[in-house]
Design a protein that fits this description.
Elements: H1 3-13, H2 53-66, E1 69-73, H3 76-87, E2 93-97, H4 102-112, E3 118-122, E4 137-141, H5 153-162, E5 166-170, E6 188-192, E7 206-210, H6 213-226, H7 232-242, H8 245-263, E8 269-273, H9 283-289, E9 296-301, H10 304-313, E10 318-319, E11 329-332, E12 344-348, H11 354-366
Helix pairs in contact: 1-2, 2-7, 3-4, 3-6
The structure holds pyridoxal-5'-phosphate.
Pyridoxal-5'-phosphate binds next to α3.
């Protein structure tokens, strides 16, 4: 029995003991904008932008996962922008990864910089040696997306602290079941629950987690005042997805470890990036910091055309952006302008039974 197993059971049963006779076992969706309010004092809910019960249920599950206070948002980017807006002010320096989720960079350049935040982009692998003096916020993402470079979170936190900076970690590629940035000293975690936590490619959602009540109060104020609030139906979908997160991740990560190994032995594959693979540049730090190598694999084929043909021909791959769904999916990242080789594919391993998935992949790889 591991800590993750206990968390998984707690997530499944977080409402069980508070049910009254005749209550629905599944979470009710409460689509309320307003609440009965003969007087304000003592009301559990007052107005839908301030809080509602269906969010609170998914936040209770996410709080179990994070072992921290959680504020939910209608997308990963809504959570990321909330965290940044909650901590930054004019004149601050923000360090963000040059090779991380690109919308975070576009948001920072387009909206934070014009308000007087100095935005400094830095390659993820340079975080390990960077001097953070003068920074107000160090924002990291590990493994980076799509390159899968890993940084030592505790070491970054130590240097950021010494420089007087706060640290925010985007933990989307791992989830708290595989990596725990708050335990390693980060001030805030942001995540897109759109990916593995919701898991079925049918809803956008996000959250901010943290253990400093003052910081979290500011994040909560941002949600209420900006109006970036999730809908009750979306919260319900994520609540349902989270019930199977631990089970899905176990299959996805176990399959990814085998597939990464086998990809490395294929003639048509010129390079493989998987932090859980012995020999990967990030293997040592991944072993210390991550519960497994994850479910994302980067690999390279000889050309854009060859990579596209593999994606089209493999029966059990969805050709889509995003990752973490039940279906395995893949795409050539250079089509978005990412700084990767033309034939580089980001593969998200899903929950298909391993050997069925692998034989479809091997067949598509074998066609010369
Ligand atoms: C998808 C993603 C986001 C943004 O999430 P949305 O729900 O699409 O807004 C942020 N960070 C990472 C690492 C992601 O993969």
């Amino acid at each position: 029995m591991t800590a993750n197993h206990t968390i998984a059971a707690e997530i499944l049963h977080h409402r069980s003991k508070s049910l009254a006779k005749g209550d629905p076992v599944s979470l009710p969706i409460v689509p309320a904008a307003t609440f009965h309010l003969p007087e304000v004092a003592g009301a559990a809910h007052i107005y839908g932008r301030n809080g509602m019960s269906t969010w609170e249920a998914v936040e209770a599950q996410l709080a179990l996962l994070e072992q921290a206070e959680v504020v939910s948002f209608p997308s990963g980017m809504a959570a990321i922008s909330a965290a940044l807006m909650a901590v930054l002010k004019q004149g601050d320096r923000l360090i963000i990864p040059a090779d991380g989720y690109y919308v975070t960079r576009v948001f920072s350049a387009g909206f934070l910089a014009p308000f007087g935040v100095e935005v400094v982009e830095m390659a993820t692998r340079d975080y390990d040696t960077a001097d953070f003096s003068g920074a107000a916020v160090v924002y990291l993402e590990t493994p980076s997306n799509p390159g899968l470079d890993v940084v030592d979170i505790a070491a970054v936190v130590a240097r950021a602290r010494a420089a007087g900076a706060l640290v925010i970690a985007d933990n989307t590629t791992m989830t708290p079941l595989l990596q725990r940035p708050l335990d390693l000293g980060c001030d805030l975690v942001v995540a897109a629950d759109t990916k593995a936590p919701a898991g079925h490619s049918d809803v956008l959602f996000g959250h901010v987690a943290g253990r400093d009540p003052a910081l979290m109060a500011r994040v909560r104020d941002w949600r209420r005042l900006s109006g970036a609030v999730p809908g009750p139906f979306e919260a319900w979908q994520v609540h349902r997805g989270l019930e199977t997160l631990e089970l899905r991740l176990e299959r996805m990560c176990a399959s990814a470890a085998v597939i990464a190994q086998r990809l490395g032995e294929q003639a048509g594959v010129t390079a493989v990036r998987y932090p859980g693979l012995a020999g990967d540049a990030s293997y040592a730090v991944a072993q210390r910091q991550m519960g497994s190598g994850g479910f994302l694999i980067g690999f390279q084929m000889a050309s854009a055309a060859r990579a596209e043909r593999f994606l089209t021909d493999c029966r059990y791959l969805v050709q889509s952006t995003s990752f973490g769904g039940t279906h395995s999916s893949g795409e050539r990242r250079a089509r978005w302008g990412d700084q990767v080789a033309e034939g580089f594919i980001r593969l998200s391993v899903g929950i298909e039974p391993l050997e069925v998935l692998w034989s479809a992949m091997a067949e598509a790889l074998g066609e010369s």
